[in-house]
Design brief:
single chain, disordered N terminus, OB fold (Dihydrolipoamide Acetyltransferase, E2P), alpha+beta, five-stranded antiparallel sheet, globular
Length: about 100
C-alpha cells in the first residue's frame, strides 16, 4: 500500500502538467499580433540572453490598452513573466524595463 502510494505520487509529480513553471525573461519585442476582437494578442520577444524567439499570449486589459495606444511597441525591451503550462506561454506580467 505504501509503495503504491509512493509510486502514484511520483507519477503525478513527474507529469508534464505539474512541471509547468512561471518563467521570467527580458527581451525585445519583434512582433505584436492583435486578435481581431482586441481581447488578446501574441507578442513575440527575442530573449536577450539566448536570442530565442518566444511567443507570449497577452490577455490582460492594461497591457492590451498599451498595445492599442502604442505605449508598448515593437523594439521595446520588456520584462515578462509567463506560465508555460501546455506550451501556451500565457502572460502573467508584461512591463517595459524602463518603466511605464
Amino acid at each position: 500500500m505504501i509503495l503504491a502510494t509512493a509510486l502514484t505520487f511520483a507519477a503525478i509529480a513527474g507529469s508534464p502538467a505539474t512541471l509547468a513553471a512561471e518563467v521570467k525573461m527580458v527581451g525585445t519585442i519583434t512582433e505584436i499580433q492583435m486578435a481581431a476582437d482586441g481581447n488578446s494578442a501574441i507578442a513575440i520577444l527575442e530573449h536577450n540572453k539566448t536570442g530565442e524567439s518566444i511567443a507570449i499570449t497577452v490577455t490582460d486589459e492594461l497591457t492590451l490598452d498599451k498595445f492599442k495606444d502604442e505605449r508598448i511597441v515593437e523594439g521595446d525591451e520588456i520584462r515578462a513573466k509567463y506560465d508555460n503550462a501546455g506550451g501556451s506561454n500565457k502572460s502573467l506580467t508584461f512591463k517595459k524595463t524602463a518603466g511605464c
